[in-house]
Amino acid sequence: MNRREFITHSLAAVAATSVLATACKKNSSATLASKEEDGEMTMRTNPNSGDRVSLLGFGMMRLPVQAGGTARENPDSAIDQEAVNEMVDYALEHGVNYFDTSPVYCQGLSEQSTGIALARHPRNSYFIATKLSNFSTSVWSHEESVAMFERSLNYLQTDYVDYLLLHSIGGTSRGKDSLETFYGRYMDNGILDWLVEQKKKGRIRNLGFSYHGDIQIFDMLLKWHDEGKYHWDFVQIELNYLDWNYANEINPRNTDADYLYAELEKRGIPAVIMEPLLGGRLANQPDAITAKMHKKDSRYTPAAWAFRFAGSPKGVLSVLSGMTYMEHLQENIRTFSPLEPLSVLEEEWLLALAKDIYELKAIPCTTCNYCMPCPYGLNIPAIFSHYNKCIAEGVMPSADSQENEYKRNRRAFLVGYDRSVPKLRQADHCIGCDHCVSHCPQRIDIPGEMRRIDRFVDELRKNNA
């Protein structure tokens, strides 16, 4: 079954539900209103556990800090716990019940903050997802990995995790390929078998993995599922309308989302979606792309179009969004309360629009910050963000442009670069140590991109005519 059939099936189900709701309303004893009338959050049922999960999931990766912004922008500032509490309260009040965190988010403080906010509510009113984020070889031992899991329970103030993920499988560690890395993190130390035992004891309710990188690892784990060696209750994948067909073309080491989703759907494994906005890139489109979206249907923002794409397939359990501000949470809740699935024609139009976006050739950085800190002080995400921002705003200096336009864009690029990235943290200070490469979920050739940007900037500085 292809994606069009998935969405057609979903639309049929929605139509059937609407007919049933209408019939019930004609009965004087009926009290259940339709989602369209009362604005309820769209919910999905996990077929493996029966959990009723909100289609919008709260990603606890970009929590606000007291200095403003996030821990990525102000790493020395404490998390604004009062703001987090308010957002979690609002989310729960409006139907959001899936909260995704990790030991490595927010400078290692996300689990503590999430635990404080959620512990103020009944334990059966929410689902906690966290991860075994044993990336460094120093925590690959059985004892260290167990300790990480136990700390997660302590920080989250709970005696069980609803959804536990092997974090970012398919990635590499320095000096090791993806298969060696996977076996070192989960198999040679016996930790995967230990996690299976914890699930039998009820300390883990659902066991799965998040995928970034080498497709042979993804296929291997699904083969184990087919053979009954290990059972995956859910899998987290990157899915958005740009990555649906272009993830591999943007970066040959990535995998198109249509393949990932189809492999999960045919096995009945629920998919949890990360990067529906591609690190915010799909919410901040170039003016020309935004204009096309507005002309198509002015009711939907660029973010709403992306969320509708990610949430439409019937095998999607929850779509994660990392939210820092209350207004983002409120806007996203409106989009998902209820989510209007894409029509077949809308899906075809959005996938065609993805080709226009792909041809802009931006760097596929989602500003996840896994590459940081750089041993030599580079601000890698800020460098990529400025470069992509100029592409998105249509102000990238080009030799093909008119002289006055080139001068104007050249100056804007260089001034903006120096303002957003201190000189000692710019691309020309990269020595190509490759420390960052193994940490990048998007598998970007970061040193190669740094060299390319450095050459580009150097050329702009020389052309001071």
Describe what this molecule looks like in 3D.
The protein has 465 residues and is of the alpha/beta class. The chain has 17 helices and ten strands. The chain has helices at 3-26, 35-38, 81-93, 110-118, 142-156, 178-187, 191-200, 215-227, 243-250, 257-265, 287-296, 302-311, 326-335, 344-358, 380-392, 403-420, 446-462, and strands at 43-45, 52-54, 56-59, 98-100, 127-132, 161-169, 204-211, 234-238, 271-274, 316-322. The protein has an eight-stranded parallel β-barrel with strand order 3-4-5-6-7-8-9-10, surrounded by five helices. A two-stranded antiparallel ribbon has the order 1-2. Helix 5 links the parallel strand 5 and strand 6 (161-169). The longest helix has 24 residues, at 3-26. Residues 6-37 have low confidence and may be disordered.
What are the segments in which pLDDT stays under 50 over at least 5 consecutive residues? 6-37
Helix content: 40-55%
Query: Biggest β-sheet, characterized?
Result: 8 strands, parallel, barrel
Distance between the termini: 58 Å
How would you summarize what this structure contains?
This protein is α/β, with parallel strands linked by helices.
What are the key terms here?
465 residues; two-stranded antiparallel ribbon; 11% strand; eight-stranded parallel barrel; alpha/beta; 17 helices; globular
What is the fold's blueprint, element by element?
Blueprint: H1 3-26, H2 35-38, E1 43-45, E2 52-54, E3 56-59, H3 81-93, E4 98-100, H4 110-118, E5 127-132, H5 142-156, E6 161-169, H6 178-187, H7 191-200, E7 204-211, H8 215-227, E8 234-238, H9 243-250, H10 257-265, E9 271-274, H11 287-296, H12 302-311, E10 316-322, H13 326-335, H14 344-358, H15 380-392, H16 403-420, H17 446-462
Parallel strand pairs: 3-4, 3-10, 4-5, 5-6, 6-7, 7-8, 8-9, 9-10
Antiparallel strand pairs: 1-2
Helix pairs in contact: 3-4, 3-13, 4-5, 9-14, 15-16
